[in-house]
Amino acid sequence: MTGQNHIDSLVDAKDVKRMLKVSLPLVYKLADQGRLPCVRIPCPGEGTKKRRNLVRFKMKDIHEFIEKNYRNL
């Protein structure tokens, strides 16, 4: 690389939902609880709309989450 830090590709909550085969609310809950690391990108709201954040995840963190929570019974 030429003087740039390598940043993992970011995926959105819908991608994580499909990878983990879980509901979208569960993906957001895991992120809110800090169990699934994420980056929150502020999106300014207009007027009386609530400020929202885009939530993105690193593939590396998703793979680590799977390995950490894998149970071989």
Overview of this protein structure:
- It is built from three helices and three strands.
- A hairpin with an 8-residue loop joins strand 2 and strand 3.
- It is of the alpha+beta class.
- It starts with 9 loop residues before the first strand and ends with a helix.
- A three-stranded antiparallel β-sheet has the order 1-3-2.
- It has one domain.
- It has helices at 13-20, 24-32, 59-69, and strands at 10-12, 39-43, 52-58.
Nutshell version of this structure?
The chain has helices at 13-20, 24-32, 59-69; strands spanning 10-12, 39-43, 52-58.
List the helices and strands and how they pair.
Blueprint: E1 10-12, H1 13-20, H2 24-32, E2 39-43, E3 52-58, H3 59-69
Antiparallel strand pairs: 1-3, 2-3
Helix pairs in contact: 1-2
Main features:
73 residues; 3 helices; elongated
